Amino acid sequence: MKLALRDVTKRFGTLVANDRISLTVESGEIHGLLGENGAGKSTLMNVLYGLYQADEGEILLDDKPVHFRDPGDAIAAGIGMVHQHFMLVPVFTVAENVMLGHEATGRFGILDIDAARKRVREISDRFGFHLDPDALVENLPVGIQQRVEIVKALSRDARVLVLDEPTAVLTPQETDDLMQIMRQLKESGTAIIFITHKLREIREAADRITVIRRGAVVGEPPPSASNAELAAMMVGRPVELTVHKDPAQPGPAALTVRDLRVTDDDGHVHVDGVSFEIRRGEVLGVAGVQGNGQTELTEALLGLQAHVEGSMVLDDVELRGRSVRRVLDAGVGFIPEDRQGEGLVGEFSIAENMMLNRSHGKPFVSLGTVQQRALNAFAQERLDQYDIRASGIDQHAAQLSGGNQQKVIVARELSRDLRLLVAAQPTRGVDVGSIEFIHKQIVATRDSGVPVLLVSTELDEIVALSDRIMVLYRGRVVGIVPAGTPRETLGLMMAGEQPEGSAA
Ligand SMILES: Nc1ncnc2c1ncn2[C@@H]1O[C@H](COP(=O)(O)OP(=O)(O)OP(=O)(O)O)[C@@H](O)[C@H]1O
């Protein structure tokens, strides 16, 4: 099977999101799609999947033009899509989720649960997915949920599989597993379109690469191209891939956390006796495999967790027991890992989102009225500075590409007067050019004397930005080690091994 997109153009009002894009992918091939935030990758895939109608251009399957009115048509023609935000129903089992939607496509393959179970087992065995058809989706780790999405697509005989930033939410181990799965799918004849911002992954997996910038194809580099070459082609200028920073000049301790314990409603302990301090002008990186208490730790600091014991003192102010509002008012900046849930209001404009998290909307609200001019000027400045690709400051946040949404949050939080910055996965889904910029801003925040708690599952990011590194494992501190600690040591610590001579 051969899929060709030919001269596809898609406009949103005056914005040309896809400008005569052509791309082909054949059976047994992985085609990497690279492009900066807002370049038009997801839009193109949504056209392919029948979610959007192209304004011009055509889609050809085995050289025959096809027309997809909706995803049902695309699925029936053998196109499968794994979205970054999974479309699974958490309270259903794996088999129930795989069955769901089959009725909509008019196929009669799996309309009873036993057939669905059987199909899950078949596909799972064939590709070594180790999926239990009867497991509840909500109990599965993210990497396994993604496999359910892949099985769902394969169960509908997908021959072209689109993976839109599949590794953004995966641990390094899960990423390796996914790469392996992609290779097996490729060998079995599936055609794969693979979108990622991680250049290493593209170079490792892709047989061919297409780079798009501002909606148009700018090149088809070979997978042997270097990271620097790919980055420059994506962004249109050379990109510094390493962070330059001076050694920290830490001041006195600003945040002191003692014996922090966080439990959920069911009594499970997620953070178990964690103690640390962060000095002014210092970045404390929190390393660990996702799910070892990092999320709960940051949420506890922000007042987003209900059952918290211990103390968290910021500049003599106890944060425990404070509402989120009062924590923000105390000068805590927060870049949450869940940007859509906690970072933005989708129906608000970019400018309105820029006003959030400020104490009484200051300085953009006075006497209960929004100072629209000042707000607009501020939002426009941030748009330019952070290179946020949008039609303007009035565009709704929900209409922004994922990476640009992330940039709005980072721009807003780093523009407030901060006494502490809590940054969780600050560059998730962000392109290499913007990572360079955000990293510089985090270092500048540190250098202005603000303590920074940086949580990231990207060890590269932790190593690049941190002055000290705290490793969490099963909710406990394995050790707090200096920057420059070898990665192998960090890796062992992330698996729970105590380093020699570490001090908390
Ligand atoms: N429904 C929509 N209405 C208006 N504009 C939209 C809509 N969907 C996308 N856009 C715009 O189209 C452009 C391309 O967005 P798209 O999501 O395709 O980018 P992307 O390459 O996938 O970016 P990222 O790497 O950040 O995910 C962006 O400027 C975005 O704001």
Task: Lay out the secondary structure.
Elements lengths: L1 E11 L2 E12 L3 E6 L5 H8 L7 E6 L2 E3 L4 H6 L2 E4 L11 H6 L13 H15 L14 H14 L4 E5 L7 H16 L3 E5 L3 H7 L2 E6 L2 E4 L7 H9 L17 E11 L5 E11 L3 E5 L6 H9 L4 E8 L2 E2 L5 H6 L2 E4 L3 H5 L6 H6 L9 E2 L2 E2 L1 H14 L16 H13 L5 E5 L7 H16 L4 E4 L3 H7 L2 E6 L2 E7 L4 H8 L10
Parallel strand pairs: 3-8, 3-9, 6-7, 7-8, 13-20, 13-21, 16-19, 19-20
Antiparallel strand pairs: 1-2, 1-4, 4-5, 9-10, 11-12, 11-14, 14-15, 17-18, 21-22
Helix pairs in contact: 4-5
This protein binds adenosine-5'-triphosphate (ATP).
Question: How do you describe this structure in short?
Answer:
By secondary structure, the chain is α/β, with parallel strands linked by helices. The protein is built from 17 helices and 22 strands. A hairpin with a 2-residue loop joins β21 (468-473) and β22.
Quick one: biggest sheet? 6 strands, mixed
Ions, cofactors, ligands: which are bound? Answer: adenosine-5'-triphosphate
Mean pLDDT: 91
Shape: globular
Uncertain regions spanning at least 5 consecutive residues: none
The total beta strand count reads: 22
| Beta-strand residue fraction | 25-35%
Tell me the span between the first and last alpha carbons.
Answer: 57 Å
Give descriptors for this structure.
504 residues, alpha/beta, 6-stranded mixed β-sheet, 17 helices, 26% strand, globular, binds adenosine-5'-triphosphate
